[in-house]
Design goal:
The complex is a heterodimer of chains A (483) and B (252).
Chain A (H helix, E strand, L loop, with lengths): L2 H10 L13 E3 L6 H10 L4 H15 L23 E3 L13 H10 L3 H6 L5 E7 L2 E5 L2 H6 L3 E4 H7 L1 H7 L10 H9 L4 E5 L8 E7 L10 E6 L4 E9 L7 E3 L2 E6 L4 E9 L11 E11 L5 E8 L4 E4 L2 E4 L5 E10 L4 E10 L5 E10 L4 E10 L7 E11 L4 E10 L5 E11 L1 H9 L4 H17 L4 H15 L5
Parallel strand pairs in A: 3-7, 6-8, 7-9, 8-11, 9-12, 10-13, 11-13, 12-14, 13-15, 13-16, 14-17, 15-18, 16-18, 17-19, 18-20, 19-21, 20-22, 21-23
Antiparallel strand pairs in A: 1-2, 3-4, 5-6
Chain B lengths: L1 E10 L2 E11 L4 E5 L6 H9 L5 E9 L2 E2 L5 H7 L1 E4 L11 H15 L7 H14 L17 H15 L3 E5 L7 H14 L5 E5 L13 E6 L2 E6 L2 H9 L1 H11 L1
Parallel strand pairs in B: 3-8, 3-9, 6-7, 7-8
Antiparallel strand pairs in B: 1-2, 1-4, 4-5, 9-10
Classes of the chains: A alpha/beta (483), B alpha/beta (252).
């Protein structure tokens, strides 16, 4: 084996750096799923009756559905009856300050580099963190300042209790209960998540962010996120994740719903770094996520940006329904797969209104023995006069044992629509690395330079502090221990 | 400056270089000619440190340092530049960014401060004029969609920016029309000085009309079988390599 091949092996054979487990007492529901368990969850969370009804409806729907098999991913069937559907750190008492937070929990944040203390001390840049650990929000910061503008940013559980009218009005309107197998499951058992409401004409003064983290063994995590931007408002929402090392596969089936009213704009950014499993793909997270936004009002805009580096399996298609006339949908994605990771990800742009525009930029990077697929649908409905789409799907291969696949679907029912699709595939091979070295650039640096150059268009769309984090993540995922 | 003694190298089981001897002094231009498959490009790759070739014997010293133990990038930092016969395309990395990274790596290795963006751009502009390259190229991904001639000019641009002490040109003339050939030769001639040497590998005499060598070597069957002045190239052009084959058989 030549040095370059060895490099690619070393670089791509790197093990996950954030594997650790936090030891926190928890209250856990018995294994398995039934109407009783759902009642247990709802009761635990002191939910109003409509919420329980909604959960039960979803559960009954889920029972009639089958797990989808069309994605280009392979995994052992999940035994849904062997999972715990509720786990929460035991509430000791109401928390007034960080001093009262479980020190173990604080340590976890520190390992992740996102300690609340640090966040508090951040000068200049204000980031509100609604930290979700195993389903229960522990601490919400900057809430007062947001409140003064009428912005609601809280955990889903709090929203269900304090703003039931908003939750009831919007939940399930973008991703209906029976939309797909995983969203139905999520609707039945969702544990917690984030809720965000921006009132009319308000520009949210800070980036909103939430860190998700799976912590308890065998606990499927079912996050539910709802972001509503009322007329003429703007919000930028960040979501980032890491997870501890585990032997058994962990199921993650989140649902995210975005609603943008007239002239509103929602920017939703994700850096996803769930545990991908070891070199042989053992023990990683199954990430089956349904993310969808609706540009409900005229001239509204929804922009998804994602950097996906983790999970054993990723099944995720952040989508936009462009209902309002002149509304805009965007999707910027970097998906990295390494070792034996599998990703089937992409987007759906559904053009309903007139003069709607969408833009898709997807950058796949495959390394090791991984498989990376882009799957995208651009649909132009009958009423969508003069709809426009531009799609760019690029694949970058590292070494010659990985795979990249592109599945673009286009459906058009209106002849005035225009859809453009461009795709490229490139490869970092020994010749490229040698060329860089001959110019004086060491291998590791060359890989970093090429990967960052390749992803630039997407990374540029992330809020600045997040872009730096994302670059670091790419470096961790693809390089590191060389030399 | 460069001293090669008894250099042997093979790829898999096939021995390609069978004991090459060559000495290049500062300021000299050496041409290496030879028929296809004689080992010319292998010699260039081995000097640059490509590890698909295994060195089985001999020594290479560069300014007194043993070069065979060095990584390719270390050789580059020492001042060796290889203009590739087939330059690669690097997606997503534009020429300016690539060259800035390369130059600053070299400067760092030699204990110099990195060049600022403004200083670098000034340098680029100056060097681009030297190779008559359009400004638009620096913002395009390196070599992506470049024509054969544009790629070779880009190699010359990189050489001009990195300012090596030894430039190795591996069949840089192949696939070039006469105008592009003149630009390449012109760039080399402008860079020639008392401290900088060149090894020009070529199949044809044509390039040597423009880059006039001090010494011409003929590489055949993995060895240098004849060396002479620039007139040797003309003789080869006229008589072909078979002529030498016969004479070398006679002399060996």
């Amino acid at each position: 084996m030549s040095d370059e091949q060895q490099l690619i092996e070393e670089v791509t054979g790197q093990e996950y750096k954030y594997g650790f487990v936090t030891d926190i007492e928890q209250e856990t529901a018995p294994k398995g799923l039934s109407e009783d368990i759902i009642c247990f969850i709802s009761e635990k969370k002191k939910e109003p009756a409509f919420m329980l009804e909604w959960r039960l409806k979803a559960y009954r729907k889920w029972l009639t559905m089958e797990e989808p098999t069309w994605a280009k991913v392979n995994y052992k069937p999940v035994d849904y009856q062997s999972l715990h559907y509720y786990a929460a750190p035991k509430p000791k008492k109401e928390l007034e300050s960080l001093d009262e937070v479980d020190p173990e929990l604080l340590k976890t944040f520190e390992k992740l580099g996102i300690s609340l203390e640090e966040q508090k001390r951040l000068s200049g840049v204000k980031v509100a963190v609604d930290a979700v650990i195993d389903s229960v929000s522990v601490k919400t910061t900057f809430q007062e300042e947001l409140k003064s503008k009428g912005i609601i940013f809280c955990s889903m559980s709090e929203a269900v209790q304090n703003h039931p009218e908003l939750v009831e009005k919007y939940i399930g309107t973008v991703v209906p209960v029976g939309d797909n197998y995983f969203s139905a499951l999520n609707s039945a058992v969702f544990s917690d998540g984030s809720f965000c409401y921006i009132p009319k004409g308000v520009r949210c003064p800070m980036e909103l962010s939430t860190y998700f983290r799976i912590n308890a063994a065998n606990t499927g995590q079912f996050e539910r996120t709802l972001v509503i931007a009322d007329e003429g408002s703007y919000v930028s929402y960040l979501e980032g994740c890491t997870a501890p090392m585990r032997d058994e596969n962990q199921l993650h089936a989140a649902v995210v719903e975005l609603i943008a009213h007239e002239d509103a704009e929602i920017k939703y950014s994700t850096v996803q770094n769930w545990y991908p499993g070891d070199k042989d793909g053992k023990g990683g997270i199954y990430n089956f996520v349904t993310k969808r936004g609706i540009c409900a009002g005229d001239r509204s805009k929804i922009s998804w940006t994602q950097v996906e580096t983790g999970s054993a399996i990723t099944w995720k298609y952040p989508s936009c329904i462009l209902k309002g006339n002149n509304s805009i949908g965007e999707f910027y994605s970097v998906a990295v797969t390494n070792n034996k990771q599998q990703a089937d990800t992409g987007t759906k742009m559904i053009h309903v209104g007139e003069n709607t525009r969408s833009r898709i930029v997807s950058k796949g990077i495959s390394a090791g023995k991984s498989d990376n697929s882009y799957r995208g649908l651009v649909k132009i409905m009958k009423r969508a006069k003069n709809a426009r789409n531009f799609s760019q799907c690029d694949s970058l291969l590292m070494g010659d044992r990985c795979g990249a696949h592109t599945f673009p679907y286009i459906e058009s029912d209106n002849s005035t629509g225009r859809v453009e699709h461009e795709a490229t595939t490139s490869k970092i091979d020994e010749d490229i690395l040698f060329y860089c070295q001959q110019r004086g650039i060491p291998e590791e640096k060359a890989v970093e330079m090429i990967v960052n150059g390749y992803c630039k268009e997407v990374l540029n769309k992330l809020p600045m502090e997040f872009a730096v984090e994302a670059q670091k993540l790419l470096a961790i995922s693809l390089e590191g221990s060389v030399g | 400056m460069l001293k090669i003694e008894g250099l042997k190298a093979r790829i898999e089981e096939k021995e390609i270089l069978k004991g090459v001897n060559l000495e290049v002094k500062p300021g000299e231009v050496h041409a290496i000619m030879g028929p296809n498959g004689s080992g010319k490009s292998t010699l260039a790759s081995v000097l640059a440190g490509k590890d698909t070739f295994e060195v089985t014997g001999g020594t290479v010293t560069f300014n007194g340092k043993d070069m065979l133990g060095m990584e390719p990038e270390e050789r580059a930092h020492e001042g060796i530049f290889l203009a590739f016969q087939y330059p690669v395309e690097i997606p997503g990395v534009n020429t300016a960014n690539f060259l800035k990274t390369a130059l600053n790596e070299k400067r760092e290795a030699n204990g110099q401060d990195p060049l600022s963006a403004a200083d670098f751009l000034k340098l680029m502009k100056e060097k681009m004029e030297l190779v008559e390259m359009d400004k638009a190229f620096i913002n395009r991904a390196l070599n992506e969609g470049f024509s054969g001639g544009e790629k070779k000019r880009n190699e010359m641009l990189q050489m001009a920016v990195l300012e090596p002490t030894l430039g190795i040109l591996d069949e840089t003339d192949s696939g070039l029309d006469i105008d592009a050939l003149k630009i390449v030769a012109n760039a080399v001639n402008k860079m020639r000085n008392a401290n900088r040497s060149f090894v020009v590998i070529t199949h044809y005499q044509r390039l040597l009309d423009y880059i006039v060598p001090d010494v011409v070597h003929v590489l055949q069957g993995g060895k240098i079988v004849k060396s002479g002045g620039k007139e040797l190239a003309l003789e080869l052009e006229e008589k072909g390599y078979d002529w030498l084959k016969k004479s070398s058989e006679l002399t060996v």
